[in-house]
Amino acid sequence: MKFCGAVLALVLAILVVGCASAGGPRHIAVVSVVTAHSTLAAVQDTEALLVCGTATALPAPQCITPEAHRAFAKKLVTAFDLDGQIAKQVLAWPPDQALPPVITNLLSQLDAILAELIAALPNTPATDRLLASLKGAQ
């Protein structure tokens, strides 16, 4: 499945800026954590709908094989772990300090995994709804 670069840029924009651009850097980081978690949950839910053999999946090749599902799940575990690390870093960030580079680094890693996860989804109406919801969250 091909996704235009705009979708990947959208995910990065949601993670880094979101709707919190009017707040300070700490507020932006907090909103980014919440948005990242919601985005991961939506990606996880969409993928679960598309696993071959489930009542909600389309026939092959528009479904996700059990092997691809396991690989997807491993990446999701890593992504949710990064999400937790980001939340811990934001909580530990002293309010009077500049944005710690570790947060930017973790957000970049999470963005890369999200891009891989989204690119792995087959072209289906469920995927289209996910992408539309991500676009609407911007």
Give the key terms.
138 residues, mainly alpha, 5 helices, elongated, disordered N terminus
Strand content: under 5%
Morphology call: elongated
Percent helix among the residues? Answer: over 70%
In total, the number of strands is: 0
Looking at how many chains there are and whether they match, the oligomeric state comes to: single chain
Strand and helix layout:
Blueprint: H1 5-16, H2 25-49, H3 66-92, H4 101-120, H5 125-137
Structure, described:
- The chain is mainly α and 138 residues long.
- It has one domain (5-137).
- The chain has five helices and no strands.
- The chain has helices at 5-16, 25-49, 66-92, 101-120, 125-137.
- The longest helix has 27 residues, at 66-92.
- It is elongated, with a radius of gyration of 16 Å.
- The model is unreliable at 1-12 and 15-21 (pLDDT under 50).
